[in-house]
C-alpha cells in the first residue's frame, strides 16, 4: 500500500466517522454536545495539519546538513566552466 493510499484511507475513515456523528445517520442518540463538538472538527484538523507541516519544514530546515565538500567542488566546476566559456569566446 502506497503512502497516498494510506493517507486517503485514513482521511476517508475520519470523514465517515465525522459524518456519522455530525448528521446522526445511524440514530446512535448521541448527546447534542457531541454534535456541537464534531461539527467544527474538520477545521481543527486542518489547522493541526498546517501546524504540523510548518513544524516539520522548520525542523528539517534547521537541521539541514551543509555539504562543504560538494560546495567546494561546485565552485571549482563553475570556475572551470567560466574559463572554458571564455576560451570559446563568450564575453562576461
UniProtKB/TrEMBL annotation:
It comes from the Eukaryota. Pfam families: DPM3 (PF08285). GO terms for biological process: GPI anchor biosynthetic process. The keyword ATP-binding does not apply. Belongs to the DPM3 family. The chain crosses the membrane at residues 43-62. One of its GO terms (cellular component) is dolichol-phosphate-mannose synthase complex. Keywords: Coiled coil, Endoplasmic reticulum, Glycosyltransferase, Membrane, Transferase, Transmembrane, Transmembrane helix. Its main location: endoplasmic reticulum. It is a multi-pass membrane protein. InterPro entries: DPM3. Stabilizer subunit of the dolichol-phosphate mannose (DPM) synthase complex; tethers catalytic subunit to the ER. It comes from Carassius auratus (Goldfish). It is found in: Endoplasmic reticulum membrane. Pathway: Protein modification; protein glycosylation. Component of the dolichol-phosphate mannose (DPM) synthase complex. The keyword Hydrolase does not apply. This is Dolichol-phosphate mannosyltransferase subunit 3. Residues 64-91 form a coiled coil.
Amino acid at each position: 500500500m502506497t503512502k497516498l493510499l494510506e493517507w486517503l484511507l485514513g482521511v476517508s475513515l475520519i470523514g465517515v466517522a465525522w459524518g456519522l456523528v455530525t448528521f446522526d445517520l445511524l440514530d446512535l442518540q448521541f448527546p447534542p454536545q457531541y454534535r456541537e463538538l464534531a461539527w467544527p472538527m474538520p477545521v481543527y484538523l486542518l489547522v493541526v495539519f498546517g501546524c504540523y507541516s510548518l513544524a516539520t519544514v522548520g525542523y528539517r530546515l534547521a537541521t539541514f546538513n551543509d555539504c562543504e565538500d560538494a560546495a567546494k567542488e561546485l565552485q571549482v566546476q563553475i570556475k572551470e566552466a567560466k574559463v572554458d566559456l571564455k576560451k570559446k569566446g563568450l564575453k562576461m
